[in-house]
Amino acid sequence: MSDIDLDDLKATIAGYPDAGKLFPFILVMGETGAGKSTFIKTLAPDSNVKIERSLDPGTSTSTVVPIKIGYLSVNLVDTPGFNDVERSDADILLDISKCLVALSRAGGELRGIIYLHNLAFPRFSGTCKAHLEMLREICGDRGIGNVFLVASNWDSGNEENCIIREKSLHTKYWRNLINDGATFTRFRNSYDSAEAIVVQCVWKESVVFDLQREILDDGLLLERTRAGSYALARRSLRPAELRRVLNGDAPGNPDDIEKAIKIGENDNVKLRVDIVKETDNRFMKIMRSKGTRGVATLLQVVMTLAGIGLSIAGIIAGL
To answer: Domain EngC GTPase, which positions (predicted)?
Structure first.
């Protein structure tokens, strides 16, 4: 766990020039191809959901897009999609965990998760089901009420098929989450529908997900949390699933499979990182830097700690 005194950390943050000006955050999640970037770009067409240079030279994987709807201001976090052949689910979970820890340490308010599913997908696969379970493990029972399950890509050409697939989501695959308090809704690729979803979410009370509690309050490494344990268990099954593609027993591109099988081999090591200690130490180092104060916003500092990008101009580099 962190060797930084929490009161000292809070005092340092409170003395930052724009402390208290962090607008609420909403995570935008879903499978690769679910329409996350399309959703965000509908609300912020000028952002291009583009990762700019952060405060740190490290690689950015997610993007924060500050938007304004009427008098409401909110930060949307475009997270990497699950089921990516380039990255393991455990690796993506690590990114999300770093973001949640950084937000908690900075006093940022999390209002919920917008979780999209593309209605053009021909079927609800086993990986889709697994990622719903991952979502539940991240949120916990107390956090499900801050989840918005969104059926996307209604302009895919066949509304009758969309209606059938949406009904299947509502009555079968998403039923338990909806019964536990999640909100089911549609994104019709329009500004109005995206705005309505974000407004409903931002008006929710702030939430602390179980993953945050397990890491920050219980002192667990990510591998010992429920979400981390589930991701590692899934990783052990994934090579067998991918080899089914190589054998011609399941759909997929064989050219990508050999590479994908190797992805995640070091997940056990990655998930043993002490995220809290790493975040707190870097937080204090950055925020005490004389070159940082007055030129970097607190949001930029938080996103640097989380290792993700900020989709606005003027991000400074080299700290």
So the answer is: 26-86
Residue 245 structure tokens: 């593609």
Task: Give the residue from 189, 89, 101, 84 showing the smallest Cα distance to 132.
Answer: 89
Which portions of the chain are predicted below pLDDT 50? 50-60, 312-319
* In the block, residue with structure tokens 């399941």: 250
Could you read off the pLDDT of 60-104 as tens digits, one per residue?
A: 467 788 888 888 889 998 888 877 667 778 888 998 999 899 888
Query: CA–CA separation, 317 vs 18, rounded Å?
Result: 19
Q: Tokens 């090591």 map to which residue?
A: 269
Q: What's 235's DSSP letter?
A: H
Structure tokens given for 182: 């999640």
Q: How do residues 228-269 score in pLDDT, each as one tens digit?
A: 998 888 765 555 555 555 555 555 555 555 555 566 567 777
> Which of 131, 27, 36 lies closest to 88, judged by CA?
131
Pairing of strands 25-30, 110-118: parallel
Q: How many residues does the chain have?
A: 319
- Contact call for residues 181 and 144 (beta carbons, < 8 A): yes
Q: What is the set of domains in the chain, with CATH numbers?
A: 6-310 (3.40.50.300)
Please check whether residue 26 is in contact with residue 114, taking contact to mean a CB–CB distance below 8 angstroms.
yes
